[in-house]
């Protein structure tokens, strides 16, 4: 007879759900909203406990499990432009993790076990934590390696920016959610991490981090002499920012995967555009935006 302790059951499933939600967001290149992930994980832990309570065994029905997973994903990723992608990654990671659990169970009498769609264990809780962390690391590395191949599907592109005699190469994400345009020409704007674009500028006109967070002051300081028409301020709106400004520079040319796209306005972001670092610039669909 298997004895299941409610506290261990809750903590184990909440921990696993949190790591899976976190891993899916990392792989999708989305901001890590850890509080929301924690709330989703708590929901998952409570569901794991509920199905073992008297009179609530009906919750183990596949439809109830699917509804619980959907609610957990909405709680963790709600409002994201890539809700579907993150949800699919979460499901894929969960399946991979579940397969690993079954494999571990076949190799010994103790370890993580999978039953009724939830995880439980007879191991010392410290070992459970260590096992979950190792599984998270392995699965994340495997899926991140697979995710590097998305360049073949057109999501990632090799971008070369040129300004005068200088050029910089970086990886850009072709993001359908990037609707930022030049209000003068109406053409699409590339958003690049300011740090990644440093080599485009001579030292005396190179924007420092303080310039990126104070674009108005930077325009006055850097837009002098021959660079007077290079820099400009670009208004933008995003989640949590109703009216913001970005320091932007007019690059002489943009090359995407070997194809010339002509001059382009590049907005310099003071913060990383990808949490995982898989890309350092954003651009709208190439056929429409540039």
Features of the shown structure:
290 residues, alpha+beta, elongated, 9-stranded mixed β-sheet, two-stranded antiparallel sheet, 2 domains
How does this model look, in words?
By secondary structure, this protein is α+β, with helices and mostly antiparallel strands. The chain has two domains: 6-148; 154-289, no CATH class. It is 42% helix and 22% strand. It has eight helices and eleven strands. It has helices spanning 6-28, 34-50, 62-77, 83-107, 125-147, 209-213, 215-222, 286-289, and strands at residues 112-115, 118-121, 156-163, 166-174, 189-193, 231-238, 241-251, 253-256, 259-260, 264-269, 281-283. The protein has a nine-stranded mixed β-sheet with strand order 6-7-10-5-11-4-3-8-9. The chain has a two-stranded antiparallel sheet with strand order 1-2. A hairpin with a 2-residue loop joins strand 1 (112-115) and strand 2. Helix 3 (62-77) packs across helix 4. The protein is elongated, with a radius of gyration of 24 Å. The protein starts with 5 loop residues before the first helix and ends with a helix.
